[in-house]
């Protein structure tokens, strides 16, 4: 019986494996075929579809729910019916719960494949690796469930037979299986959205530990063997991931960090760099790169997340600019939020392709960019890219006119606006900004802004006398002093923390003396709206005017809303696009 179970399950394993490969191929082919076809016809498929391409649409759009069903159907069928030539009642139940373990390991290969950050298949298919993350999450959950049920049923059966100790702890192969089970069980709660976002670094470490344990320990635990082809396949993908990371990462010094008083946005300037002589400076607008404070030889570079940041500049600019929102949480050194510092060296992993669909870059005629907070780092290069197309057209060396380009930036604090002062390239777009760049300051009325400005110089904690400090550094320090002193005797603690604080601020010193390179005031923009978010009805009413044209369908097909920001804003943007029946593409800064 044991031999029969093993033989049948070895053969069974090939079904989910082949299903996975076909599924991946379908993802690639459908996106590629549809992109070519629809780009040629100047249609984008992201919103509209007909029954003929209904099936492919879900592959194209990566609709997770539908894709999961497509994947699940062949998986469930092969799981239940194989072996086909034995009557169902004669198949021992053990085959199935043993098989669940194999299924989870086989699916890990697909899971690794879809998370490859930069691979030829993604390039060919015009997918971005961030597109795959929702699918990766659902597949991981499915793998967890199959592994969990596999382990649980074994434990229950052993418990009923009263052989738990003998089978689980005295059998070294099963003990390894139990260890994998425990590691997975620790990861599971950490992967729930709330905890994942709160303790992202911890989650990420645990995620990698689980991955390594699962891939490397399962071949020892599993009987029959899972070495061929699954383990070798996974090793090949892991090797590609490591080689790519090594190949594309360089240690670079931050040229400049501009601290914006009263705001937690910072402008970061990095040098452009080449990789093995290859020009690495030609990238689509809103591509991103990744930064790590650790050197590639440091194990933490591999175990902790690298930080993705949108490139706020364009390839033609002198530097690579980032607009970064600095967080201030974490006391444990490894878990602290990333702090980028001027003249300090960081490991930069080259740009990753933009998530803006190619059909938008090629065919868009009406564009709305709606971004919140640090999402401006995503919005600015897109805005400039399309404005440049129009400028080229006006100068006679382009053939593309984008009729409408509007940028909406939602911020909670007027000081965030000041970051634009330091984006030198904006000087070339003054007329355009005045025409179609709209600002929403959600939490301040004009009166509050004036009051704030008048009181901005008042520093409540008089002990802090640090030359060259900025308002936000002082705020950070004040916050830290108060937080730390909650738990200790106030006076002792205060001096100590203030000393640390002084050093930190001195280290962080940046030149905010000059008044920036691009002058801003209320008149700079098309509109500055205080104390409110965009009004999704009245502010975008002009989109309804499309209905008056004969070719309304075509206009809608070439109208795009690109959005980036907090979840609430993203939700509203999707609703707006659906209501107005136009295309949209969203970049989320949180996984
Ligand atoms: C494609 C992309 C582009 C981005 N571009 C920008 C940008 O231009 N400007 C900007 O300010 N921010 C951007 N972000 C977000 C930025 O990467 C995170 O805010 C940053 O990594 C947080 O680092 P931290 O040490 O402060 O994190 P923590 O203080 O540990 O966590 C703060 C929050 O950031 C999230 N986070 C932490 N690390 C990562 C990570 N490696 N990947 C994704 N989320 C993470 C956590 O879920 C948490 O909610 C982008 C994110 C993505 C995915």
What is this structure's SSE topology?
Blueprint: H1 2-40, H2 54-61, H3 64-81, H4 93-115, H5 120-125, H6 133-160, H7 164-169, H8 172-190, H9 193-198, H10 200-221, H11 227-248, E1 249-253, E2 256-259, E3 265-270, E4 288-292, H12 299-303, E5 307-310, E6 320-325, E7 345-352, H13 358-363, E8 366-372, H14 376-394, E9 404-411, H15 430-436, E10 437-441, H16 446-455, H17 471-486, H18 490-508, E11 527-530, H19 552-557, E12 559-564, H20 567-580, E13 583-587
Parallel strand pairs: 8-9, 8-12, 9-10, 10-11, 12-13
Antiparallel strand pairs: 1-7, 2-3, 3-6, 4-5, 4-7
Helix pairs in contact: 1-2, 1-3, 1-4, 4-6, 4-11, 6-8, 8-10, 17-18
Bound molecules: flavin-adenine dinucleotide.
């Amino acid at each position: 019986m044991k031999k029969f179970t093993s033989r049948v399950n070895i053969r069974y394993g090939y079904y989910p494996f082949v299903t996975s490969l076909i599924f991946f191929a379908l993802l690639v082919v459908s996106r590629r075929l549809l992109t070519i076809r629809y780009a040629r016809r100047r249609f984008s498929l992201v919103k509209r579809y007909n029954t003929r391409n209904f099936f492919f649409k879900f592959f194209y759009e990566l609709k997770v729910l539908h894709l999961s069903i497509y994947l699940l159907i062949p998986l469930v069928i092969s799981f239940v019916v194989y072996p086909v030539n034995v009557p169902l009642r004669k198949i021992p139940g053990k085959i199935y719960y043993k098989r669940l373990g194999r299924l989870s390991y086989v699916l890990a290969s697909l899971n690794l494949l879809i998370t490859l950050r930069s691979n030829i298949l993604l390039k060919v298919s015009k997918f971005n690796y961030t597109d795959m993350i929702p699918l990766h999450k659902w597949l991981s959950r499915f793998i967890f469930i199959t592994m969990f049920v596999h382990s649980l049923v074994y434990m229950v059966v052993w418990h009923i037979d009263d052989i738990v100790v003998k089978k689980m702890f005295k059998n070294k192969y099963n003990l390894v299986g139990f260890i994998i089970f425990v590691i997975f069980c620790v990861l599971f709660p950490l992967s729930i959205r709330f905890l994942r976002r709160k303790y992202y670094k911890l989650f990420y470490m645990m995620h990698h530990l689980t991955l390594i344990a699962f891939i490397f320990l399962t071949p020892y635990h599993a009987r029959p063997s899972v070495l061929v082809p699954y383990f070798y396949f996974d090793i090949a993908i892991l090797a590609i991931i490591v080689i790519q990371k090594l190949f594309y990462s360089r240690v670079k010094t931050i040229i400049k960090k501009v601290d914006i008083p009263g705001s937690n946005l910072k402008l970061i300037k990095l040098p452009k760099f080449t990789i093995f002589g290859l020009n690495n400076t030609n990238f689509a607008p809103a591509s991103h790169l990744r930064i790590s404070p650790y050197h590639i030889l440091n194990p933490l570079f591999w175990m902790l997340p690298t930080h993705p940041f949108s490139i706020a500049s364009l390839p033609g600019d002198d530097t690579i600019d980032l607009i970064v929102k600095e967080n201030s949480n974490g006391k444990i050194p490894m878990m602290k939020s990333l702090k980028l510092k001027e003249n300090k060296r960081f490991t930069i992993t080259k740009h990753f392709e933009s998530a803006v669909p190619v059909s938008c870059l090629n065919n868009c005629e009406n564009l709305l960019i709606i971004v919140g907070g640090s999402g401006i780092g995503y919005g600015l290069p897109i805005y400039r890219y399309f404005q440049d197309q129009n400028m080229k057209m006006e100068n006679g060396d382009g053939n593309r006119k984008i009729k409408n380009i509007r940028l909406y930036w939602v911020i909670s604090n007027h000081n965030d606006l000041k970051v634009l002062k330091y984006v030198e390239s904006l000087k070339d777009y003054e007329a355009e900004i005045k025409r179609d760049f709209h600002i929403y300051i959600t939490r301040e009325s004009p009166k509050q802004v004036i009051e704030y400005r008048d009181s901005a110089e008042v520093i409540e904690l008089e002990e802090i006398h640090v030359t060259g400090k900025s308002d936000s550094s002082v705020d950070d320090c004040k916050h830290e002093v108060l937080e730390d002193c909650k738990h200790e005797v106030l006076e002792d603690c205060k001096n100590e923390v203030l000393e640390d604080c002084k050093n930190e601020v001195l280290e962080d010193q940046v030149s905010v003396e000059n008044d920036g390179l691009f002058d801003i005031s209320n008149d700079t923009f098309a509109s500055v709206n205080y104390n409110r978010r965009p009004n999704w009805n009245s502010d975008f009413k002009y989109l309804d005017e499309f209905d008056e044209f004969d070719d309304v369908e075509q206009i809608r097909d070439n109208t795009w809303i690109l959005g980036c920001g907090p979840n609430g804003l993203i939700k509203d943007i999707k609703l707006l696009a659906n209501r107005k029946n136009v295309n949209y593409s969203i970049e989320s800064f949180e996984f």
